[in-house]
Write a structure and sequence with these properties.
- The chain is of the alpha+beta class.
- It has a domain at 143-206: Head domain of nucleotide exchange factor GrpE (Nucleotide Exchange Factor Grpe, Chain A, domain 2, Roll).
- Helix content is 61%, strand content 19%.
- The chain has helices spanning 26-90, 93-115, 120-140, 202-238, and strands at residues 2-7, 10-15, 143-145, 158-166, 174-179, 182-184, 187-190, 192-199.
- The strands form three sheets. It has a three-stranded antiparallel β-sheet.
- Helix 2 packs antiparallel against helix 3 (120-140).
- The longest helix has 65 residues, at 26-90.
- The N and C termini lie far apart (199 Å).
Length: 239
């Protein structure tokens, strides 16, 4: 579409292209596409910058969170170490507190014996009462004695110091206990010192009886020999 313009008495023809004209020149089309691609690149650049900023902020927040957690965990470790040290230092406090009355009773018993006002029976009764208190305290803290006498020998709980023949018991039966053993809950803290039985054989018993009979008969034989010797002497004198 051409229009004629007049300037200073001269006419100039100008070609005007309408927006809706289908015969658009290639140069104008390239310019439009370049502008569109430039706008898209700018939008992508803005989006990339926004994404990087978001990631940067998230990393910063996670780093701060990690530092806070690390500081809390470090404080927790220090607190646990301090609590463990205090526990080891004062673990026996309750037990020792329970032992104090027993120590007081022992001191009173010693003072009473030194003063001369107590008799043997009173001292014995006092010691027995103290022993009962001590056993009651041991039971309170889950300490109990190991069963030994009359029980089969168990190397897990008993320590044998010797064997003794016995006709009343079979092999490996605890006959006597020289020192008591104790358990803390189910853990052995000291084994029992015991004497273990050894079954006697019939041959040994018969030999023992025969030996005793021989010992009983030997004096009679000696008397008989003495009489025979005296009779022989008398006969020789008569001759």
């Amino acid at each position: 579409m051409a229009e004629e313009l007049k300037t200073d008495g001269e006419s100039v023809k100008v070609k005007v292209t309408e927006a809706g004209d289908e015969n658009t020149s290639p140069d104008n089309a390239d310019g439009i596409s370049d502008n569109a691609s430039g706008d898209e690149g700018a939008e992508k650049g803005n989006k990339t910058e926004d994404t990087e900023e978001v990631i940067r902020q998230e990393l910063k927040a996670e780093k701060e969170r990690f530092l806070r957690m690390y500081a809390e965990f470090d404080n927790y470790k220090k607190r646990c170490t301090r609590d463990m040290q205090d526990f080891r230092k004062y673990a026996n406090e309750s037990l020792l507190r329970e032992l104090l009355p027993i120590i007081d009773n022992l001191e009173r018993a010693v003072q009473s014996a030194e003063s001369g006002n107590s008799t043997e029976n009173s001292v014995k009764e006092g010691v027995e009462l103290i022993l009962k208190d001590m056993l009651r305290l041991m039971e309170k803290f889950h300490v109990k004695a190991v069963k030994a006498v009359g029980q089969p020998f168990d190397p897990m709980f008993h320590e044998a110091i010797g064997q003794e023949e016995s006709r009343e018991h079979g092999d490996n039966i605890v006959l006597r206990e020289f020192q008591k053993g104790y358990l803390l809950h189910d853990r052995l803290i000291r084994p029992s010192m015991v004497m273990v039985s050894k079954a006697g054989t019939k041959t040994d018993s018969s030999n023992t009886e025969e030996t005793k009979e021989e010992e009983k008969e030997s004096p009679a034989e000696e008397d008989k020999k003495e009489k025979e010797d005296s009779t022989a002497e008398n006969e020789s004198v008569r001759e």
